[in-house]
Amino acid sequence: MMGDDTINMKVTDHEKILHKLKLVLSWVGGLLALIGVLFVVIRLVGYADKLDLSQLQTVDWLVLSALSILYAIMNVALVLAWQQIMKSLKTPLGFWQAAHIYGMSQLAKYVPGNIFHLAGRQALGMAAGVPGWALAKSSVWELGLIAVAGALFGLLSLPLWWQSFPSVVALLLFVIVLIVMGLAARRWLKLPMAFALGCYVLFLTVSGLIFFVVLSLVSSVSVTTGMLLGLVGAFVIAWLAGLLTPGAPAGVGVRELVLLFVLKGAVAEADLLLAVAIGRVVTVAGDLLFFLGAAGIRRKE
């Protein structure tokens, strides 16, 4: 009995330490997000006389609307990835059920804390009869695969760091490493996980291209292969930094801060700030459209 009490005390102390650590990380992440938001706001105010939305014509607004719809559609790739992860965990879900659960909880990522979409998915999934252990494991696998996929895009941003680095070589390295990672995932993690990894790469690629189009609308950035690859890579790295920062809702502030740092000198700061602000509106609108679509889904399986 004495030994059991000692073990219980150790477990309790361990849980308290973990709880305090989570609180500290959450506060630090929230502080970083706040600093990022304040930094972007200060820079926007400083460039207020140079930020002119009137330069956007009707066709530009139509393009931005189309980009929001495209972003909403690309959320389907996230649903498919999660569905395959659940399949790998021996807990298969029908597509419509997965889309409903994932879509209804995804909007909660904008709540301060950056984890509420995961908690919401856990709750909705368990309410639908999905085992809680599978849902928890799927969140860990999702974050891990997204982190691996996002880190891969660092290869595309190499020309931004070293201007003499050939963009063709960066693209070739990206493709080779992607193929190796896919084959490794297929070999050791089985086909569903490899498919999920591919879905995340697709989602991040399209997200980066959306940002590139937004920047092209508000600036005179030269459309070269090197600039295209560099901007896509930089955006994904900034997106990943925001995702992995605890306490930052949807990476707000952190993503923008990293983008301003990485692309400094490559793009006029006034144009970059405007593109960052408009890009955030595009993605938020896309997430809202996806949420509305998920809300209208009737569970078919």
Give a structural overview.
This protein is an all-alpha fold. It has one domain. It has helices at residues 2-46, 58-88, 95-106, 116-127, 132-152, 158-161, 167-218, 225-244, 254-262, 269-295. It is globular and about 50 Å long. 40% of the residues are buried.
For the residues shown, what is the average pLDDT?
81
The percentage helix is over 70%
Radius of gyration: 21 Å
What fraction strand?
A: under 5%
What distance separates the N and C termini? Answer: 49 Å
Run of helices and strands: HHHHHHHHHH
Low-confidence sequence ranges: none
Per DSSP, the total helix count is 10
Give the overall shape, derived from the CA principal axes.
globular
What is the total number of structural domains?
A: 1
Structural class: mainly alpha
What's the story with the biggest beta sheet? none
Number of E strands: 0
List key phrases describing it.
globular; 301 residues; 10 helices
Secondary structure topology:
Layout: H1 2-46, H2 58-88, H3 95-106, H4 116-127, H5 132-152, H6 158-161, H7 167-218, H8 225-244, H9 254-262, H10 269-295
